[in-house]
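One chain given next:
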Amino acid sequence: MHTLPFTPKPEDIIKLLKLIPTLEVPARNLNAAYLKTLGFSQSSSNHLIDILARTGFVTAEGKPSDIWREYALDENRGLVLASAVKRAYPDLFHKVFCPYLEPDDDLIDYLRPRDQKVSARDLNLMLDTFRALCELADFQNDMYVEGPAPSVKVNPNLQLNIQVHIDPNTPDAKIDAIFKSMRKYLLSSTPPS
């Protein structure tokens, strides 16, 4: 078993995530057979169940979780999904501030398991799976700082040079979120938890 979830059909993740809000919350266990009734192949269904479990959409008993219900019913489902993605990739979000903004080459290095060999194909599928999960997720609320900026005393002999490399295709809203987050961490009088 791989340390990170993946599917040979990452596009099925987006298809399923778009489908969930249109469905009634299933009363039965969520398994590959249920996903097959929604039009997914057996192979894809097995992988999707693993992804749903790792993101917390499905309980250990195989039932739809509160995350599934919240995602299905909440208009801010992008925020729910962002939280679920962080749950599935805790180490990645601990190592990289905004991993969903990282270039593929850099992200592959973070996704590569250190304790086992993974084929290049599976590693690329892990990357594509992560990207598919992030496509509909809204990470912006986690970055906003509320209230006035704290006053900070700076030693005039200290110089700080920060370089931010942002993909040219990054939406303006995400760029704004990055800089608001930088403000929070750079001007905060207490270290981030």
